Amino acid sequence: MMRFVEILRIAFDALLQNKMRSLLTMLGIIIGVGAVIAMVAIGQGAQTSVEAQISSLGTNVLMVFPGSTTRGGVMAGGGTGTSLTEEDGLAVKEQCPAVAYVSPILRSGGQVVYSNLNWGTSLQGGTVDLFSIRDWQLQSGEFFTDQDVRAATKVCLLGQTVVRQLFDTQDPVGQTIRIRNIPFKVIGTLKPKGQNSMGQDQDDLIIMPYPTLQKRLMGNTRNWGFLMSAVTKDQIPEAQQQITDLLRARHKLGPNDDNDFTIRTQTEIADAQTATTRIMTYLLASIASVSLLVGGIGIMNIMLVSVTERTREIGVRMSIGARKKDILTQFLMEAIVISLLGGLIGIGFGLGSSGFVSKIVGWPTFVAPVYIVLAVFFSMGVGVFFGYYPARKASLLNPIDALRYE
Q1: What is the SS3 assignment for 316?
Q2: CA distances (Å), origin 116, targets 26, 156, 157, 176, 219
Q3: Alpha carbon of 200 to those of 45, 64, 119: distances in Å?
Q4: pLDDT per residue over 304-313, tens digit each?
Q5: Are strands 226-230 and 99-104 parallel, antiparallel or unpaired?
Q6: What are phi and psi of 116, to 5 degrees?
Q7: In the Cβ-directed half-sphere of 146, how many Cα atoms lie within 13 Å?
Q8: Domain ranges of the chain
Q9: Spatial CB neighbours of 30, under 8 Å, sequence gap ≥ 6
Q10: Which of 33, 197, 199, 397 has the fewest C-beta atoms under 10 angstroms from its C-beta?
């Protein structure tokens, strides 16, 4: 232990004798590690943000649309057919034990008027289950009921964007708004959810019973699809399989027939989104890692210069009993100290830079502790890798030739 401390002390003394050169040598490592940490922090923050936005879609969500993604060898796309019926949704709810909630989902748009104000917004129709599937929480008022759905009652709930545009600070509950000149009673408002992963405002909407939207505003009975929720997250694949088997049986599809419906799960959406951000993080981190390579080359260059400058010192040490192993360890330790100090400063620089970017741009940042530990060990690895050759060169010097060196 004492020997290690002594080697470390000598390494620090040697570096302090050339402070500016040591600092400039560390600069490459500082920039490299800092850039990698900053890129990872921004990338992980973006990934965390995407995951949060995906989770705002609802709880264990499955989306079932009419139309097949592959029909007759041609990409048709979900939502291009009319194969789903209300009876399909009822059958899924009754016969698929892995499915907890089922709601038809209809979407339209319309101009909403209150007093002398108007606002164009999204209209969504569903059943009572829609609020559980999407995990909508009440800000005020109440949800509509099964009776409202059966009777196609002209009631609705407003998202916070619509509330701000039409009512400002006034409580909208109990008020009457007009949608396409048809009066609707506001029975509740929804807590805000913010933007989704596509940048769309999830609070700019009005939700009403789907028969109301069908019959009173859309003028048809076409069912665009269903939102469903698995009992648990782990049961999403099981629920997807149960829904597929049931709908194929109900639609009398043969073994070789393509599905006439499309199922998308929350997991698939999350995997696709996070995969994109993960690839971008790796790409940016890889580009930033080039600075570490440059920094490592700088360490090797300076250590070679140091060996040349201290050739006589090496000869003196060897003549009084220092072994090749001791010389190798000494110069290797100096390289490790340079790279490790640069790495530690770089970590601080990277965390500070990512925090600055977060404040300026508004992006969240996050760095898992494991990446900081990896950065420390990687810095040490750079020192060992690029410092070994100069250290070995120093240890192989002939003591007589070293003492004669001027």
Answers
A1: helix
A2: 66, 20, 20, 13, 27
A3: 19, 21, 16
A4: 877 777 777 7
A5: antiparallel
A6: -105, 15
A7: 1
A8: 2-53+271-404, 106-223
A9: 295, 342, 343, 345, 346, 349
A10: 199
